[in-house]
UniProtKB/TrEMBL annotation:
Annotated localization: Endoplasmic reticulum; Golgi apparatus; Lysosome; Secreted
Organism in which the protein naturally occurs: Hymenobacter armeniacus
Keyword Repeat on entry: no
Subunit relationships: Homodimer. The monomeric form is inactive while the homodimer is active.
Domain spans labelled Peptidase M28: 281-463
Main location: endoplasmic reticulum
Keyword entries, A-Z: Carboxypeptidase, Endoplasmic reticulum, Glycoprotein, Golgi apparatus, Hydrolase, Lysosome, Metal-binding, Metalloprotease, Protease, Secreted, Signal, Zinc, Zymogen
Protein name in UniProt: Carboxypeptidase Q
Record InterPro entries: CPQ, Peptidase_M28
The UniProt record lists the keyword Disulfide bond: no
Length: 480
């Protein structure tokens, strides 16, 4: 290429990387740091053009939002084992086939079938006054077998519970009232720190002879929406019911206990566990043009909790995963490595879909370069978190200049995702990658009746699919 033409090309590429129109003189001025960054990344400068095409397609003709509208509005809640979960499987398969993927198929997996039933909670004062409070059963809980009324003991940790004398716990509800640590910048960190009381609270309560566990909802929001989520039982410990209180209800119960330690709580839950049901992961793939034996997986989980439409958790991840492959095709790009979109079944209360996908990958001796998961909502894209060695992280981070114009260049060590985690032991991919979006609002609606389609912003959702497609483009072209 002649020198003058080369300079013109480099300036144009820099303008694309910076993501803003510029005059020729401005482009020459701005080109130097951008071109230097691209050179350091060892990528083809035409990659910036390819990524721009992906984002143009997403923003101008994206299909994620309308796909999500159908999934949430026409199917709704999709708890594993439910008829709606099977409807979602059928929808996922049909949507991938319509998108024209090279291959679409199902992976059979047996999943738990838990049914919520009617539920009610009341605070009962010493004069018999009853105060109804928002409550919901934790996923997998046993029922109460009618109305269960007992005293309440409030704690903030398992250690605090262990220090209490048996007489103050036996025959009562243990009320776990540890709040989110709002000093933490990332709400996910607060969720992690508070999560043990939901997961294992019923076990620890039953060990001390309690009749049940009441858990403050895992959120910093102050409202009347109780948050469900999975809980665990220990075969060696009696099963007692577990329920979540909304944060307002938890604050109210705590305040009333201070004034009257003898008050009682009445809980009624009709939840039950039925025999396992047959379900499926939905898989669609575009076969690689040069290295078809090398696989890049991108996915979200198709199941959701039963309180709402499962829009952000994880309808957004499902439609973004499908869209990532569609965007590559629409932009005219043929991946060099095979790319799969996987809609995993049963992440919420068992992760059996992810385990089965990994088992089959190992059985078929598949080579997985990387796996990407979107399960943090459909908010504004920020970047990606990698579980990988340092060299792999450095390579992916070197692509940040290409992603910077789209504000998705935050590439750091991080958690991949629940559904792709089993691949680590099964086939040892070079990287497990978690899609990161703005998380500040996520736990306001997570696992609640408020997780509905109207909470999803179209542009944020479409930008997320384009961000994932862009990373797949780079992974497919350069490998790891």
């Amino acid at each position: 290429m002649p020198n003058l033409a080369l300079k013109t090309f480099l300036c144009a590429s820099a303008a694309l990387v910076l993501g803003a129109p510029a005059t020729h003189a401005q482009s020459r001025k701005k080109a130097r740091p951008a071109v230097a960054a691209l050179a350091a990344a060892k990528v083809d400068r035409t990659d910036s053009v390819a990524l721009r095409k992906i984002f143009d397609e997403a923003l101008l003709r994206g299909e994620s939002y309308e796909n999500l509208r159908y999934l949430t509005g026409n199917i709704g809640p999709r708890l594993s084992g439910s008829p709606q979960a099977q409807m979602a499987v059928d929808w996922g398969k049909a949507t991938m086939e319509k998108a024209g993927f090279d291959r679409v198929y199902l992976q059979e997996v047996m999943v738990p079938h838990w049914v919520r039933g009617k539920e009610k909670g009341e605070i009962v004062g010493n004069k018999g006054k009853e105060i109804k409070v928002p409550v919901c059963a934790l996923g997998g809980s046993v029922g109460t077998g009618g109305k269960l009324k007992a005293g309440v003991v409030e704690v903030h940790s398992f250690d605090e519970l262990k220090k209490l004398p048996d007489a103050s716990v036996k025959g009562k509800f243990v009320f776990y009232n540890r709040p989110f640590d709002d000093a933490l910048i990332e709400p996910g960190a607060a969720y992690g720190r508070a999560g043990d009381q939901r997961r294992s609270g019923a076990i620890e309560a039953a060990k001390r002879g309690a009749v049940g566990a009441l858990v403050r909802s895992l959120t910093s929001a102050r409202d009347d929406n109780p948050h469900t989520g999975t809980m665990q039982y220990d075969p060696a410990v009696a099963k007692v019911p577990g329920a979540a209180l909304s944060t307002n209800a938890a604050d109210q119960l705590s305040q009333l206990l201070k004034a009257n330690p003898e008050l009682q709580f009445e809980l009624e839950m009709e939840c039950t566990t039925l025999p396992d049901e047959k379900s499926y992961n939905v898989v669609g793939e575009i076969r690689g043009s040069k290295f078809p034996q090398e696989i890049i997986t991108v996915g979200g989980h198709l199941d959701s909790w039963d309180l709402a439409q499962g829009a952000h958790d994880d309808g957004t991840g499902c439609v973004q995963s499908i869209e990532a492959l569609r965007l590559l095709r629409a932009a005219g790009y043929k991946p060099e490595r095979t790319v799969r979109a996987v809609l995993f079944m049963n992440e919420e209360n068992g992760a059996r879909g992810g385990n089965e996908y990994a088992r089959l990958a190992a059985q078929n001796k598949e080579v997985h370069v990387a796996a990407i998961e979107s399960d943090g909502g459909g908010f504004t894209p920020r970047g990606f978190g990698l579980e990988s060695d340092a060299a792999t992280l450095a390579k992916v981070a070197s692509w940040a200049p290409l992603l910077k114009p789209y504000n998705v260049d935050d590439i750091t060590a991080g958690h991949g995702g629940t559904d792709i985690e089993p691949l680590k032991a099964a086939v040892q991919p070079k990287a497990l990658i978690g899609y990161k979006c703005d998380s500040q609002r996520y736990f306001d609606i997570h696992h609640t009746a408020a997780d509905t389609f109207d909470k999803v912003n179209r542009r944020e959702l479409e930008l997320g699919g384009a961000s994932m497609a862009s990373l797949i483009y780079l992974l497919s072209k350069y490998g790891l």
